[in-house]
Amino acid sequence: MSYNKILTKIAAEIAPLRNQGKQADYIPALAKVDPDHFGICITTTSGKSYGWGDIDTPFSIQSVSKVFSLSMALAIMGEELWKRVDKEPSGSAFNSLIQLELDHGIPRNPFINAGAIVVADILLSHLPHPHSDYLKFVRRMADDPTINYNFEVATSERSVGYINAAIANMLKYYGNLENEIEDVLHFYFLMCSVEMTCRQLSHAFLAYAHAKSQFEFGDIRLTSSQVKRINAIMQTCGFYNDAGEYSYLVGLPGKSGVGGGIGAVYPRRYAVATWSPRLNSKGNSVMGMKALELLTTYTNESIF
Ligand code: GLN
Predict the structure, then answer these.
(1) Digit-coded pLDDT (tens) for 193-207
(2) Do 294 and 288 contact (CB within 8 A), yes or no?
(3) Which atom, in ligand 1's list, is nearest to the CA of 113?
(4) What are the C-alpha distances in Å from 123 to residues 71, 91, 288?
(5) 257 CA to middle of ligand 1, Å?
(6) 0.90 exceeded by the pTM?
(7) Which class for 79: exposed (0-12), middle (13-18), buried (19 or more C-beta within 10 A)?
(8) Can you give the C-alpha Rg of the chain in angstroms?
């Protein structure tokens, strides 16, 4: 069966889930998004793309941005990065404060908020123009210069970002933040606020599917071994305390965000992005996860 046919079949099959879950409303600007969108877009390593639904509507990528920021930090720091942040699944909520205290200020992995806040700190310390360098990198990956921050979303999130501020304070207390707390939070929220469409996100994620070729976007270069490791961290940590369930159901390295987006890769073949704002209790898109589960089931293509 062709991908187009499979996507149509998947869309019909997940339709009954359309009212399940709830969009993220703890960020006021995200509460305004129409929760009834659904889109899925596959971009293959041979340059073809297949889509269904709202694949050209921009959404807030939120924590999917953590894959891009990790890529930059790993390119800059190499293995030294792992002195500041671990690479173990957390088994806890993405914004857990308790775990950070138990781990004495070393976040479990770069995909929970604490880890991504440390990564934001590293980028602030090392990039000449952090805000524009990050955006340039994402634009290059997606091959689309129109991608941008949504300043309203970033400001809205900061206005209620009490837990992330608490996380940043705790990191500072343990000596794991070099920059001013407010500067790090501002950059972290900006990175989360980037808006992309499913088409753009699947294009950007293609870089993680190309195991053999060069990962090189401006000054940011990763070896194929480093790309492999980013995929490993997506597989084990990309869905927080839902990572086991996602792995069991889908079987593709992936990363979710509370904007309802997911980026995933089938190494050497394609990258796929889904978007549907209604989330399950762990903060992951209900329809997106189901669509990916059906995709790997119907195609019989997964990493396992
Ligand atoms: N900006 C969001 C936050 O910090 C990102 C969380 C997510 O997408 N899981 O809460």
Answers:
(1) 999 999 999 999 999
(2) no
(3) 4
(4) 11, 26, 30
(5) 7
(6) yes
(7) exposed
(8) 18
Residues touching ligand 1 (Cβ under 6 Å) are 62-63, 94-95, 113, 157, 164, 192, 257-258, 283
Q: Which atom of ligand 1 is nearest to the CA of 192?
A: 1
Residue 239, pLDDT > 80, answer yes
266 has catalytic annotation: no
What integer is the mean pLDDT of 41-49? 95
Report yes or no: 157 and 34 within 8 Å, Cβ to Cβ.
no
Rounded to whole angstroms, the Cα distance separating 277 from 286 reads 8
Q: Determine whether 50 is an active site residue.
A: no
Packed helices 151-159 and 181-193: angle between N→C axes, nearest 10 degrees:
130
Distance, in Å, from the CA atom of 3 to the CA atom of 48, rounded to the nearest integer, reads 11
Cβ atoms of 27 and 157 within 8 Å: the answer is yes
In this structure, the residue with its CA closest to atom 2 of ligand 1 is 62
Active site residue 188: yes
Annotated active-site residue in 208, 240, 246, 266: 240
CA dist 161 and 50 (Å) reads 37
DSSP string spanning 245-300?
HHHHHT-S-EEE-TTSEEEEEETTTEEEEEE---B-TTS-BHHHHHHHHHHHHHH-
- Beta strand residue intervals within 45-112, DSSP E: 49-53, 59-60
The predicted pLDDT at position 210 comes to 86
